[in-house]
Amino acid sequence: KQYEWATGLKTGSTGLAKCCLSATASKNGIDLIAVIMGAENSKTRFSEAITLLNYGFSKCYIYQDTQVSQLEPIKIENGKQDMIECKYEKEFSYMFMDKINDEDITKQSEINTQLAAPINEGDIVGKLMYYYKNEKIGEVNIIATQSVQEATFVDSLIKIVKKLSFNWYNKLYIHNKLSYWYSDIKVLYLF
After folding, report:
1. Distance (Å, whole) CA 96 – CA 102
2. pLDDT tens track for 171-180
3. From CA 31, how far away is CA 64, in angstroms rounded?
4. pTM of structure
């Protein structure tokens, strides 16, 4: 009633502790708790809680990464497929105790390059680390969005046949194109 961002409170008083208050408030994604003890009267405990909450909100700043890069599929070994799709496990946010320049935050991704099947959906395949002025402030896991079973002998054989036939087709296609271009050049040369 007295504070627009208040989410809850509990009052109490005794002769020894005097007037006390625990208050919670939420503003711009920041949740705070103010605890007032030993206030002389009820009005003072409320005004001191409001002062404390306002101070907290003025000092806190939440950085949220809204510009995450698109993740490329990751190569895996011994799987029924050669690549696996992945995603960030969650959005990253961090609370600073003062305003900052977002440009001072850097990111570095680390992908496991030794992935081998089987891989289950949700398995961690890497991480994205966040730094503020070269000091690590947190990280977000990169996880598999699908499961990949280990390739059987037959699966491996099919992959080999597909690669060989694709390479043969490409060589034949390129040879035919070169022959066609070469015949065009000869015709032009004759004129």
Report:
1. 11
2. 555 555 545 5
3. 15
4. 0.69
